[in-house]
Design brief:
The complex is a heterodimer of chains A (about 120) and B (about 120).
Chain A (H helix, E strand, L loop, with lengths): L3 E2 L4 E5 L4 E3 L2 E2 L6 E8 L6 E7 L7 E2 L2 E6 L4 E6 L8 E9 L9 E2 L3 E6 L1
Parallel strand pairs in A: 2-12
Antiparallel strand pairs in A: 1-4, 3-9, 5-6, 5-10, 7-8, 8-9, 10-11, 10-12
Chain B lengths: L3 E3 L3 E4 L5 E7 L5 E8 L3 E10 L2 E4 L7 E6 L2 E6 L8 E8 L11 E2 L3 E5 L1
Parallel strand pairs in B: 2-11
Antiparallel strand pairs in B: 1-3, 3-8, 4-5, 4-9, 5-6, 7-8, 9-10, 9-11
The chains are: A mainly beta (about 120), B mainly beta (about 120).
Chain lengths: ~120, ~120
Amino acid sequence: AQKITQTQPGMFVQEKEAVTLDCTYDTSDPSYGLFWYKQPSSGEMIFLIYQGSYDQQNATEGRYSLNFQKARKSANLVISASQLGDSAMYFCAMREFQGGGADGLTFGKGTHLIIQP
Amino acid sequence: DVKVTQSSRYLVKRTGEKVFLECVQDMDHENMFWYRQDPGLGLRLIYFSYDVKMKEKGDIPEGYSVSREKKERFSLILESASTNQTSMYLCASSIRSGTSGFYEQYFGPGTRLTVT
């Protein structure tokens, strides 16, 4: 079974609209962390936001927020007031505490977001 | 700023060649990682290292080996390159996780390897 599921392979959104990118995860570990990364066409992976499983509040970083619904095992990324520069691949990833070792991340397959003017 | 560099952006090798991909980070991070990225599959972990000379297999280690002789440098080795190893290879580093939570990984620019 996939540990990270991103159900939207591609999305088209009008500039200035809000965007929600879906991510559901599967783990039995009570301690885990969820990450979102952005990958523009240039290829570099850019860290956006992090949510810990024990965090009481949803994470926010500027225009990015994470809609964390623990019971549903979902961690959707919300981008407010989208901009043309937000066009990129977006990856959701998870680290489980019981994974041991050196914190390798499990990634979803990504969502290709295109912002239209 | 954290900086992770990779030795090449693009590399073309022939089947059967031994290939070295080098990664260097300048933030004294304990952890280093190698991922490969393929369209429709996302990123998959090949190997990681949590200290000098220490290494652990990731999800897809077959056909690869790694070396970490110095803290800042982590090498991925393809002993005998094959066409199914044509891919984008991404190196990353991070602080080792502690009781306060998990830390983000910082990625290099990637090496696009083509094996012909």
